[in-house]
Amino acid sequence: MTGQSDNGPRFRLDCAGKTLDLTTAPAIMGIVNLTPDSFFDGGRFFGASTAPDLDMALERALGMVSAGAEIIDVGGESTRPGADAVSTEDEIRRTVPFIEHLRSRTDALISIDTWKSDVAEQALRAGANIVNDISGFTFDAAMPEVCGRHRCGIVLMHTPVRPGSMNWSHNTGNAGHDVVSTVLDFLKHSIGIALSHGIEAIVTDPGIGFGKSVEENFRLLSRLDELHALGYPVLAGVSRKSFLGQAIRRSGQELPPPSERLDATTSANTVALLNGADILRVHDVEAAVQARSVVLALRRSCGGQA
After folding, report:
1. H-run or E-run covering 194
2. Is 3.30.230.10 the CATH number for 2-301?
3. What is the pTM of this model?
4. What is the per-residue burial (b if ≥16 Cβ within 10 Å, else e) of 214-226?
5. Is 210 exposed, middle or buried (0-12, 13-18, 19+ CB in 10 A)?
6. N or C: less crowded end of the chain, CB within 10 Å?
7. 241 catalytically annotated
């Protein structure tokens, strides 16, 4: 499962019968939010209906695959700070029919973005290969058993609090704490749970933008490679997040909205790749693919040392 190259760890993961190959290049995970209230693309697929338009969402997802995404991450509940909770039934209704629809049209890996074991169960039966759990197995005690039984891939993310009580500037501890050490300790615990349930296809995610200050987010971005000490690939999810808006905000002006954060996102994705990210989770696949191509060209020109 795990290998080592001159550029650091490289991985090949078996995710419910499909291979996520990270041995030659980082992967791009395209985001499809089937939600009315996600911070950037909420409501994109709803129109006047209370249920997402599966054909619109399918066109979006297949376009991402054509643009170079190896994974499509499907979400049915917003995890933005202060988001309203969604019932298990509603989350299944939003996501599972779409996953069935998508699986019939592509061989790309499909990820379900959920912390609920019942949603994960139904999504995996419908054809998903990966569970992207923002809680790192801390919100639903039944989730590890479901993932172990399906032998799926798992993304274990660090989050200090539930989204409903989170805010963009929440600090993970006191002013003197080391956010990287905090994240590493949390993920070690999550990995231990995964391994105890026979889960081997593990990806770690430091949870950039989740319950962390702007400074902590940038510290994690600059030290991503330290997460490889855990022995697993690292996912970076920075796409259009608020901390990037804070970085590009001009003095005396309002925070730029998510729609104006693409250039900042591409810059941050490039930094993430240079600092060891194995997967980029993004709204804008074409821009991320270009950033990946530039970083890979740089590495080739530098003999693999960049």
Report:
1. helix 179-196
2. no
3. 0.90
4. bebbbbbbebbeb
5. buried
6. N
7. yes
Rounded to an integer, what distance in angstroms lies between the CA atom of residue 170 and that of residue 201? 31
- CB of 266 closer than 8 Å to CB of 217: no
Out of 241, 250, 299, 300, the active site residue is: 241
Q: Report d(CA 229, CA 250) in Å as an integer.
A: 37
Q: Are 205 and 155 in contact (CB under 8 A)?
A: yes
Burial class for 227, CB neighbours closer than 10 Å (0-12, 13-18, 19+): buried
List C-alpha distances in Å: 159 to 16, 35, 138, 183, 209. 25, 21, 9, 9, 9
pLDDT digits (tens, 9 = 90+) for 227-252: 999 999 999 999 999 999 999 999 99
Q: How many residues does the chain have?
A: 306
Active site includes 281? Answer: yes
3-state DSSP assignment of residue 26: coil
The string of pLDDT tens digits covering residues 132-189 is: 999 999 999 999 999 999 999 999 999 987 765 555 444 444 455 799 999 999 999 9
**Which residue among the candidates 281, 292, 299, 300 is catalytic per the annotation?**
281
